[in-house]
Amino acid sequence: MNDPLGHELLAERLGLIPGILRDMLASGPEPLSAATLASRRLVVTGTGSSEAHARYLANLVNLYTDRSAAYLPLSGFVDAPAETFHGKTLVVFSQGVSPNAQIALNRGHDFAHTVLFTATTPAAAEAAGKPDRAHLLQALLDRGGELVIFPLAEEYTTLIRFVGPMAGYLATMQFAAQFDCSRFQVPQAAELLPLLDAKAPAELSEAMSRLPAAFAGGFNLITAAPISDFSQNLACKFMEGLFWNCPPISDFLQFAHGPFQQMTAHPKPVVILQGDGRGEAEMVARSVDMLRGVGASATVVPVVAPPLLSIFGFEAALNDVVFSVMRQLRVDQVNWPGKGRDDQLYGFCPDK
């Protein structure tokens, strides 16, 4: 297939998402090990789209179970004393087991237990010609660690990923729901799958395609908690998909404490993500009023779903926007800027 920009490949991957999530819901998760289910204190980590999954898990654990979880960026594992992690469970999110993720995995001996959310297995890594990763995964299993596998394996070629972010959220929810103290239910297919049809208003992608410079310098995203705590990938889509500045994300009430003033001094468009939480409608109305009062544009993207599920709708709506603009602007997703020149940090892993 002649696909120099990677757009046909991305269209194919977007088309896979409903079936993949349907299959995950139908089959259910693999039962967790006794060691995982006994975990009381979790340290979770991940970067890129995996940061959003890690923060989602921390939110689920802290608010909907009697366990506790803390998010720690990967650099926090480089020099931390061993006693920092004593008695805790390490949970790492890395779709492809990147070198940076291995920084945390190499500290597994300092933890009581290790869980890795990933799209690969020892056999798959070996078949893909990555024996070092196969060895790392097998060593983790041999030490009593656990793999939580979610699609899509080998989601490479393009910089942006569409399948892994969606599947990772569902795998995270299925994982946390297995704790005996969990106070939420994994949704049924009839509740979740319609959210994958969510769309942003057509004028948003039209404005981004027609006047990309107005957005490329960094627009603002506003949303409510808890989405604001694990919406990193929604912003990163524009950076990885279109190579624009990553838009800052503000909670509605945080927006009035600096971001509003800054964007009034230096006008930028605003995209508001509205769920169905109580009070959100009023906060959206007030935000739009404020913004129009200073001559700023505001586009509202609504998703009618409970907070823990609305992230799937926002993912779908913004995937649609980013992919539409990507095609309009003929963005090259195969030969992205800086390709092959990031290894000093992307490949950083002190113990390798």
Main traits of this protein?
single chain, alpha/beta, Rossmann fold, four-stranded parallel β-sheet, 16 helices, 9 strands
Can you walk me through this structure?
The strands form 2 sheets. Strands 2-1-3-4-5 form a 5-stranded parallel β-sheet, sandwiched between helices. Strand 3, helix 4 (99-105) and strand 4 (113-118) form a beta-alpha-beta unit. The protein has 16 helices and 9 strands. The longest helix is centred in the last third of the chain and has 23 residues, at 307-329. Helix 1 (7-27) runs parallel beside helix 7 and helix 1 (7-27) packs antiparallel against helix 15. It folds into 2 domains: 7-186, Glucose-6-phosphate isomerase like protein, domain 1 (Rossmann fold, 3-Layer(aba) Sandwich), CATH 3.40.50; 189-329, Glucose-6-phosphate isomerase like protein, domain 1 (Rossmann fold, 3-Layer(aba) Sandwich), CATH 3.40.50.10490. The chain is an alpha/beta fold.
